[in-house]
Design a protein that fits this description.
The structure is a homodimer of 252-residue chains. Chain A is α/β, with parallel strands linked by helices and 252 residues long. About 4% of the residues of chain A have low confidence. Chain A has ten helices and 15 strands. In chain A, the strands form four sheets. In chain A, strands 6-5-4-9-12-14-15 form a seven-stranded parallel sheet, sandwiched between helices. The first copy, chain A, has a three-stranded antiparallel sheet with strand order 1-3-2. The first copy, chain A, binds a DNA duplex (30 and 30 nucleotides) through α3.
Chain lengths: 252, 252
Amino acid sequence: MLAAERRDHLLELLARQGKIVAKEVAAELGISEDSVRRDLRDLAAEGLCQRVYGGALPVSPAVVDYGARQSVAPDGKRKVASVAAGLVRPGGTVILDGGTTALAVAHALPRDLACTVITHSPPIAVALLDHPQAEVFVLGGRLFKHSAVTCGAAAAEAAQNVSADLFLLGVTGVHPEAGLTTGDAEDAAMKRALAARAADTYVLASSEKIGTASRFRVLPWAETSGLVTDKDPHDPVLEQLAENGVEVLPAG
Amino acid sequence: MLAAERRDHLLELLARQGKIVAKEVAAELGISEDSVRRDLRDLAAEGLCQRVYGGALPVSPAVVDYGARQSVAPDGKRKVASVAAGLVRPGGTVILDGGTTALAVAHALPRDLACTVITHSPPIAVALLDHPQAEVFVLGGRLFKHSAVTCGAAAAEAAQNVSADLFLLGVTGVHPEAGLTTGDAEDAAMKRALAARAADTYVLASSEKIGTASRFRVLPWAETSGLVTDKDPHDPVLEQLAENGVEVLPAG
DNA sequence: CCCGTTCTTGCACGTTTCTGCATGTATCGT
DNA sequence: ACGATACATGCAGAAACGTGCAAGAACGGG
């Protein structure tokens, strides 16, 4: 591995996970921690990261350049996105829902991951423009501006023509009794249509969604494979879900 | 192996695997590392790669990206976009092509214009998110990353289901004999399909496009209604077009 | 056909850069 | 305060680098 390449890798890691742990990276890349430390020192000298004890953090968002600016998702969403991105297998096909959390997943995908991404969200399509190895398929339809996704009959029909291994579903409410809910009926229908086209459906739920419910039911728990959240797994709501057979993937 | 051939090989390698390791290439091609280094040095001098210790990397896509993304539309494109936006009638339906000029049109549309916009460009869909009165319809399909538009069979099929008053067509070349041209065959086919669905087709051509031609023909002049450009209307190329019955809308 | 020129290529040499280890110091958590 | 961990520094071997040089090929003019 080239030294400069390693440097790029560090920067990408920083943008994707929001932090770097020197020890982990050294082990992952099979190089000494000294080299990682040296790289981090250099990057910090160029103002590209902030050196901290044990690793590095992104430079404060105010100073950060344009590239990272758009990837400023709240910490919780980024953690969820990072774990969810790990569910996407190389060569696999994933349906990415709309919403800010799903957008964070798009940003969290390794830049050179070879996979197929199906989405009905134009912002996600735009975010994936610089993933050269990702084959992106956009589901057309009427643009629902509130969520920045396409929906309606045309979109639902387009969804019937695709299949995927995985659907990463964003919702606005996750509640033991109310189930998975969202604020728009059409949007809910679209999510249902997408879930029906994927072998597995994982729900993206940053902590603020847990225990809340919105107006329209999306899916029953039985049709989901699991839930990715940064909320403490010992939270009563999550424990109740786990008892009901929902696989909870912690993103702490 | 010819020197120029070797150079091409290096560039292709760079594009394919995102990096070049001098030692590996030298062994693979059976030449000395010195020659590889010399080639890389030359390529770097031409700005075709970035030289690093041990090999080379592509010119940072980040630099290109941000440059293009950040740079507000050049003056010419903005003038063209402004005039073209004026062609959109309240309550009317317009098909907006992809490309930076069409994106400028989206930005130039009055924020509360009530109209229907059909597009196969995710960035344009995103740009129209804050036009509350605009009904936006996205044509889905495989995402062609170079132009940031959807194309392919699915997109062409989706195009068959819409109709519009107006198609604002972006091209890369406007030439009296070669006609309207663009750099990608699929993209050209998509533009043709869109032109067939609109009553009128107006070409968006900022001055640098006038008199140039690209690889693939899009449309004959007969199927266009007019041309919007900021180039001096007395330009010989434009006068020749006008003689052939093309309506030239000046955007000076 | 011959000769001089130019360009390319590989080799040799000295220099720079990188990397991992060892050492001693600073910092963190308990 | 203490041990554990992370850190900076110095060092040595290895790898990559630039440069100069010479052999060979391609080319053009006489």
